[in-house]
Amino acid sequence: MNQAKLLIVDDIATNIEVLANALNLDYQLIIATDGAKALELARTQLPDLILLDIMMPELDGYEVCKRLKADPITQDIPVIFISAMTNTDDEEQGFAVGAVDYIHKPFKLALMRARVKNHVQLKQQADLLRAIAQMQQFGFSETEKLVADIKQTLEKL
Asked: Which of 79, 82, 88, 139 has a 20 to 30 Å separation from 146 between CA atoms?
């Protein structure tokens, strides 16, 4: 399988740099510094995962996540909030708008990488299951390539 693609969204360059340095060897990275650009890139680049800050000008992370989940093109892309907002109400709101995880800043790099890896693998498995379901819906049987993809995904777990 190809290297997974992550969209990092933060309006502070230092935060982007920390995340990019921690993830650039394992993932293809796309960067957005505001919510509007994040929405555009999510639709055109279709990342496997979005790491999203909450406190940004104009469109905050909650609104970006709501719009992503309302759009059929981006609704299945998992969103992890990475925020300095540590109140449990903020975290609860993050999950309420559709995030799959919430990481508090400052974070331990190893734990952040582990969470990203887990959610990327879950997304890849979900995509594979959707592809199989579509093939079955149209009367196609599982091909050798599909079986090889499944084996490769399972080996990564």
From this structure: 79
